[in-house]
Amino acid sequence: MRTARRCTKTGCGRSAVATLTYAYADLTAVVGPLASFAEPHSYDLCEEHALRLTVPRGWEVMRHVGEFPSPIPHADDLEALADAVREAAKSEPERRSGDADTLTGRRGHLRVVPPPH
Question: Which pLDDT does position 1 carry in this prediction?
Answer without folding.
Answer: 42
